[in-house]
Amino acid sequence: AQSVTQPDIHITVSEGASLELRCNYSYGATPYLFWYVQSPGQGLQLLLKYFSGDTLVQGIKGFEAEFKRSQSSFNLRKPSVHWSDAAEYFCAVTGFQKLVFGTGTRLLVSP
Amino acid sequence: DAGVIQSPRHEVTEMGQEVTLRCKPISGHNSLFWYRQTMMRGLELLIYFNNNVPIDDSGMPEDRFSAKMPNASFSTLKIQPSEPRDSAVYFCASSLSNLAPGELFFGEGSRLTVL
Questions:
Q1: What is the tens place of the pLDDT at every residue in A61-96?
Q2: Cβ atoms within 10 Å of A102's Cβ, excluding its own
Q3: What does residue A60 show for φ and ψ, rounded to 5 degrees?
Q4: What is the pLDDT of residue B52?
Q5: What is the dihedral of CA A107, B3, B49, A58, to 10 degrees?
Q6: Could you give the CA distance from residue B79 to residue A109 in angstroms, rounded to a whole number?
Q7: Candidates A42, A99, A104; nearest CB to B108
Q8: Chain A residue closest to B10 (CA)?
Q9: What is the helix (H) or strand (E) element at residue A45, kind and residue range?
Q10: Phi, psi angles (nearest 5°) of residue B17
Q11: What pLDDT, on the 0 to 100 scale, is given for residue B98?
Q12: Does B42 contact A103 at a Cβ distance shorter than 8 Å?
């Protein structure tokens, strides 16, 4: 069965600094991988996805993620964090139908 | 464009009462998902439908929970009787599963508090 691990529960980053959120997955075949963001009181919004091809994928709001098969990882990055990026970030994996989410990483942005 | 619409946004009820949560998916989407979010357990998939047919309900906690999708534009999640441990935010999401697996569009959620 597929699973996702997000080892960091909270991360604090200074505004303007770079960000990397970690995600490791477990899946028997080539997975479809996703990052979603949840702002307080809101539903989840898709940031980016990886299906195949180029292992570096670009998403909305200046985010990118890199798929590394050898490490079973799909880490999310942003070169310069803005205060509005403070939210909870979820990594997710699916084979086709059932999307399984990680436990989330809460990003705090300090001035 | 209208997104996924959930109602009510907030519900406070007493233990033992019936609770019905409603969802209108995005028009044209063929898959619908119900998730529950709590601090302790994170995001849990309760059930999902494909073309109005329940495909996997293995996440439904127990017989007190039931979900229906009578047509492509409406789904309900019912809890009867409700218990305090059912307090959570319930999300509905829809997608075009065949064309974009995993690309879910979420509603804003229904926050349920059972006293």
A1: 999 999 999 999 999 999 999 999 999 999 999 876
A2: 24
A3: -80, 165
A4: 94
A5: -50
A6: 38
A7: A42
A8: A41
A9: strand A44-50
A10: -80, 155
A11: 67
A12: yes
